[in-house]
Amino acid sequence: MARASNAQTISLAIPASEVKNGQPIEADFSRDTTRLVRTYLKFYRHLVSDDPGDWLFPCRNGGPRSDHLAEDMSKVIYRETGLVMNAHLFRHFAGMLYLQQRPGAYEAVRRILGHRKLDTTTSFYTDLESKWAIRHYDEVVLSRRGKS
Prior knowledge:
Blueprint: E1 2-4, E2 10-14, E3 25-28, H1 31-43, H2 69-81, H3 87-101, H4 106-113, H5 118-143
Antiparallel strand pairs: 1-2, 2-3
Helix pairs in contact: 3-4, 3-5, 4-5
């Protein structure tokens, strides 16, 4: 459940009992993410339910939407983009995007994805990461040209 932590950001808290690995999730959203959530709440959430309840993704009566959300998301993504994507792939996609920008930052990805062991995280991404690391290496080395 997301809650307002101050006027500019939102915090997220998911208890351990609702998380697959039994680890609670707590995070403060950035201002940009908070802005996206607030835009959704202001302009789009009412298209699903007029009930002003606490659920970010409610069912028609305003309660928590637990059935078919992942399936419906997959259908919309496929219809709009032609991509086959499921809810679990979102996690891996996010990890991949993060590591593209920060090669080697496995510990951050492990924490964000909630993996108990670092080996779980590295086993998913090490094959992809060499080309990203080389690109970053090149950018760093070439950025030093002409500097004393």
